[in-house]
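## retry 2 of 3
previous attempt timed out at serialization; input unchanged, resubmitting
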Amino acid sequence: MPFLPARMQAWLKQSAQKKTGFGNSTPPLAWLFAPSATNLGFALRTTCAALLALTLALWMEMDSPQWAAMTTWIVAQNSRGQSLSKARWRLIGTFIGAVCGIAYLAAFPQSPWLLFPLLALGAGACCAWATFLRNFRSYALVLVAFTCTIIVLSAANQPDNVFMIALSRTTYITLGILCENGLAMLFAPKLDVVAKEEIRTRLQDTFCRASLSMADLLTGAQDGLMRSRALFGSIPSLADQTEFSTIEMGPHSHAGDHARAALAAISTFLARGVSLHQHMLAAAPVPESFKQQLHTLRTLLSQVPAQFNSPDPVQAAHSLRQTLLHCRTDSLQHATDYLTQFEKLRVYEPAPTPLMQELLECRILQAALAKLLLEFDRALAHFIATQTPPAKDHFRFDRQPEKDYTLAFYNGLRSAVAICLGGLLWEITAWPEGSTVAMFVAVTSTRFSSFENPVVASGGFLRGAVWAAFVSFFLVFLVLPQQASVETLLASLFLPMLVGGLALRAPNATGTAAAYNNFLPFMVGPANHTRLDELTWLNTTPAVVFGIALGVWAFRLVLPFNAAAERWRIRTKLVKDLRRLCACGTAFDTTSWMARSGNRLAQIIRHAGQHPDATTEAYLAGAMGLMTVGLLALRLHYVLAGNSIRPDQQALLRTVLNTIARSRGYTLQPAHVATHALQTLLPMALQEKNLSVHLELTRAISSLEVMRKELESNATFLDTTRRFRIARKANTLGL
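## retry succeeded, writing output
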């Protein structure tokens, strides 16, 4: 329960309404004055864990006890799965970094001009490698980099003591992790039940959004396409979050694998919906019988949110699967009926007629609709498996992250240059606190090197350090000098840490609060037999803030992030992937292509920020178009792999794929080649007597009908020789 009186809460709400004009707005400081019970519990628990770690570190006479409290705040996350994962990889990274630090200083004890470049090279390699990993696995490599740097710089003036410094660091980091995990386990029982509920809620929301998007998409509403893009962009992060729920459920549960498979099936479901939408536009006017079928399906999909919000969503999923089975069976039956009518008509009509072509189009639409429903059914089956796992379940589903070598090089180079600059500054100025500056330059530059936009991410880090310096000033100068016991020290730190814990759960203050909580114990500098005097604070704290500021500015000076350049790079990779897929059918399968395309869409959306412009919308439309072309190209490869059609027909399809693979610059040749192949294969399909060959030709025709339209409308997007932008005076793509 919120700890403010009801009158104060009502006043805050009324103030927000007057300020914003909206009744459902949240006051700016509601996270502090009227926190939720969950946020207050998290702040209290983590504050107590940090103070417990500090107390034990003081009792054990550690030389830097503040690091134990700092570690507690570092590993504290929104969920137990995140905390456990971060704690595990932090331990691994710290131990490896400690060994590397000892090795570096032993190899170059009095050679700073060799030590710093090689230290920067090692840190850059770790940061580059971290780019290839997901979640806290990348954090472990970052930990190796800056733990090694911290140990080397801390022991630079006393190299004989490097082993004890490394041992101390690993000890108080282990202590902080144990305290945070110990208290969290006491207040977080039944983790597997909570994790299962989180997976269910996450998938329920995704199913509801996907069904509403598809309902609008199939009826031609523009909102459906925009919703589909937004959902595509959120699916990769949802799949990453599933990993933490899997940790909470234990090593023997496969609910996370089923959840990721369900999200992948939803991606394919949306992609097939976009393809069907484009096919209906290409085959307009759509038959009235098919329109009626779509109306029935739209009504069914519109009811999905209400069904999933029922008390028993698993039973609702079973019921929905039965309904989808009937719809899919009807679509297949309609397709069979159209095929039967087509064959009967061909007996009496030796030459192709418009009615025969209409029957062929109707059968293509019905087959596409059946595949669409099959993907949704597959997603529902995996959702059910997350809640009621089948006996002897050994299902595995994982996504290998893409290796972006250009981004890895950028990340490694930024970190290496920043560490070299910090070491050079220390060596040239001989500043007594130069090691502190160099240390926090390394911490900042490595910690945020693997972020896509390190400038934005590290900005909150600097603000948090400034807030920690501001609060620590009052503690060091006014509060702590009047105290002489550990108990009063803990009492003085309780309220500032509690406020930091509440801010850590505020939506727009997470980065700032994380840095504040991390650096406050360091800037206060608690110890057993001494306290941090004012002169030491004036020397140390500005050095910390200055080092962090230099690390942040390194991201602005060394290969700074540029959203337009990143979009250009993403677009280039999209086109290259499509060309590779068309050139070689085994380069991707459907799942890997959808995962790769979904990650690209998510990157474009993230780089757009809070206010996407027309260029960003055009990029999203182009990326969706190329994703559709890729799916259709895979279908053509499957037709060719079946080897059922004649060699001349195979040559037409290979020409289409090869033209896409070899096209360079702005050209409509791929669209023209696809149109020519369609116009050639359509009469052949209408006259084909062999049923299996006729069906394969129909698959190829259905792909070519959509492909030619997408290739024509995205010809500018496929041209990677020139920048892609929107003409201001026209509503068309310009150069």
